[in-house]
Design a protein that fits this description.
The complex is a heterodimer of chains A (466) and B (77).
Chain A lengths: L2 H10 L8 H10 L4 H19 L2 E4 L1 H16 L11 E5 L27 H8 L3 E6 L11 E2 L3 E2 L1 E2 L2 E5 L5 H8 L5 E6 L5 H7 L2 E4 L19 E6 L2 H11 L21 E4 L8 H14 L4 E2 L4 H19 L1 H7 L8 H7 L4 H21 L5 E5 L12 E4 L2 E4 H4 L5 H4 L5 E6 L7 E7 L4 H13 L11
Parallel strand pairs in A: 2-3, 2-8, 11-12, 11-13
Antiparallel strand pairs in A: 1-3, 4-5, 6-7, 8-10, 9-10, 9-16, 13-17, 14-15, 16-17
Helix pairs in contact in A: 1-3, 3-4, 10-12, 10-13
Chain B lengths: L4 H4 L15 H10 L9 H19 L16
Classes of the chains: A alpha+beta (466), B mainly alpha (77).
Chain lengths: 466, 77
């Protein structure tokens, strides 16, 4: 029997094996499949599907085969295997991968020398036994919500390839939604994990600001940059988050359905967060009904918070690229260049006031978290729109599409709150996500609510039929 | 592309801080003064984004923050 046929036979006996990280790790530990077989099969799937969706900008085949062989050798030697043994994953191409140039979605970066070592989170994943499959497409320098990259092409939504996968971590979300990998690591500054999670219909975690190391990741906006995870299930999201925090997180990630959520006070984010279209509204309502939540809370001055987030993003983002803008402006993506150039000219007073407003807004929202533990809000104002689309209509008003996909995510990352985005599948339509927002360092509560919703089948991330 | 965005959002803004709208030539002078060359073909779009940012700035600047509020520059929630 050929290796491919043998693997196909193993996989057909367990349909979760290609899409479920926990099941893969368990099967590799038991020896029902080797890490090498799993990796070879996954590489084949990536080769088959990537031309359709353009998720990967580089496939690290040799490295993946070496890492898988090392896992199998460890098992043969009787060693205890780590928690993600043999689990394939990939990272947004702003993570350093030893031997590869860190593109961060930019043509300018392609001339830089290869990274000397892996980013810290990639090293952590390797120690946990995960197998790195490659680097994933993104908006240039993470400045976008659609992954329509001028240099490396658009990433397509696996649910409908004519539509956007979201961004800036579009390759991460699409690769997981397509079933190419069960896990991916991305970054979120203004919504870059939550927006693509929503549009691709998968689970995404943006932890508290500062919770996960950013070492070895190409920055965008130091004040807001977060690392995070994409997965198809809450079990996988919790497992990978526990690995990434070094298993030292005192908030144990018990996301089993029987852990219950009766001790968690939940409210719906009102007013500003009720501007979404009928699909966004229906998704929030589905969660509210399942949870029995009617309480609504208004966050103060949210519009101003988003404005302040814009100013800080523009100013810090432009400052990072100051020299490149002076000497290589024409080599930037046309969607990125004018925004960075405009940001480079902002007066300091605007930036400082925005940072002072941020401190004020944080204190106001912390007072709200005395009344509730979780806030529920839509992740995006609508589901995935057509690639190349410039505007959308929301509540009868036409507005620019690209910046407004972050309408509901920007005010939340502005103050570093942890968020799990959960996918709501719509009959005959595109999926859409909802944010489960917690107070700082209370990822466990957001994850428990998300897992409970998954257990009730309100939220799910089924494999896309290709 | 992004110039109409703020008018699409909520909250009418009181005009305590009416930031002056700048022209393309003023923007070019501002950029030159800061050593940031902007190609002529980019000026219209850069101006559009700068104008949008100015609208955001107006919204933030007019908020009556207590003078004791410090920046969140070293933000660690």
């Amino acid at each position: 029997m050929s290796v491919r046929r043998e693997v196909a036979s193993i996989l057909s006996s367990d349909s979760t094996l290609l899409t479920d990280a926990s099941a893969i790790a368990s099967a590799v530990k038991k020896g029902s499949i080797t890490a090498l077989q799993m990796t070879q099969q996954t590489l084949q799937i990536v080769a088959d599907l990537n031309p359709r969706y353009n998720c990967f900008t580089h496939v690290t085949e040799q490295r993946a085969l070496q890492e898988a062989t090392a896992i199998d050798q460890a098992r043969s030697a009787g060693k205890v295997l780590p928690p993600l043994a043999g689990v394939p994953y990939a990272v947004k191409n702003l993570f350093d991968i030893a031997g590869l140039t860190t593109l961060a979605g930019a043509k300018i970066n392609a001339t830089q020398p290869p990274a000397q070592q892996d980013a810290e989170l990639v090293r952590t994943m390797r120690q946990a036994g995960a197998i790195l499959l490659g680097a994933l497409n993104m908006d240039e320098y993470a400045y976008g919500f659609t992954t329509e990259n001028y240099h490396y092409g658009v990433t397509r939504n696996p649910h409908d390839p004519t539509r956007s996968a979201g961004g800036s971590s579009g390759g991460c979300a699409a690769a997981v939604a397509a079933g190419m990998v069960p896990l991916s690591l991305g970054s979120d500054t203004n919504g870059s994990i939550r927006v693509p999670s929503s549009l691709c219909g998968i689970f995404g975690l943006k932890p508290t600001y500062g919770k996960l190391s950013l070492q070895g990741m190409f920055p965008f906006v130091h004040s807001f940059d977060h690392a995070g995870v994409f997965a198809r299930s809450m079990q996988d999201l919790a497992l990978s988050y526990q690995v990434l925090t070094g298993n030292h997180d005192t908030n144990a990630m018990d996301v089993s359905a029987d852990s219950g959520i009766t001790d968690i006070r939940i409210a719906l984010a009102a007013d500003y967060f009720e501007q979404g279209d009928v699909h966004a509204t229906a998704a929030v309502q589905a969660l509210a009904t399942a949870l029995g939540v009617t309480k609504k809370i208004s966050l103060p001055e949210v519009v101003r918070a988003r404005s302040a987030a814009y100013l800080i993003t523009a100013s810090e983002g432009a400052n990072l690229h100051w020299q490149r803008l002076r000497t290589q402006a024409q080599e930037f993506d046309p969607l990125t260049r004018p925004r960075l150039l405009a940001g480079s000219l902002l007066p300091a007073a605007w930036y400082v006031q925005a940072q002072r407003f941020r401190a004020w807004f944080y204190e106001q929202v912390m007072q709200l978290f005395r009344q509730v533990d979780i806030l529920i809000a839509p992740a995006t104002p609508c589901s995935a729109q057509l690639l190349g689309q410039d505007s959308m209509i929301l509540n009868g008003v036409s507005m620019p599409l690209r910046p407004n996909m972050g309408l509901f995510t920007q005010p939340i990352s502005f103050i570093g709150l942890p968020v799990v985005t959960v996918p709501v599948q719509q009959q005959g339509g595109m999926p859409i996500g909802v944010q489960i927002i917690a107070a700082p360092h209370c990822e466990d509560k957001a994850m428990r609510v998300a897992a409970w919703l998954e257990a009730q089948a309100v939220c799910s991330a089924p494999v896309v039929n290709h | 592309m992004m110039g109409v965005e703020l008018s699409d959002l909520t909250s009418a803004v009181a005009s305590k801080h009416n930031l002056k709208k700048i022209s393309e030539s003023e923007l070019r002078c501002l950029a030159e003064g800061q050593g940031m060359p902007i190609a002529a073909c980019d000026l219209p779009q850069v101006l559009q984004h700068y104008t949008l940012l100015a609208e955001h700035a107006q919204r933030v600047l007019e908020f009556p923050l207590n003078e004791a509020v410090e920046t969140a520059g070293q933000f660690r929630p």
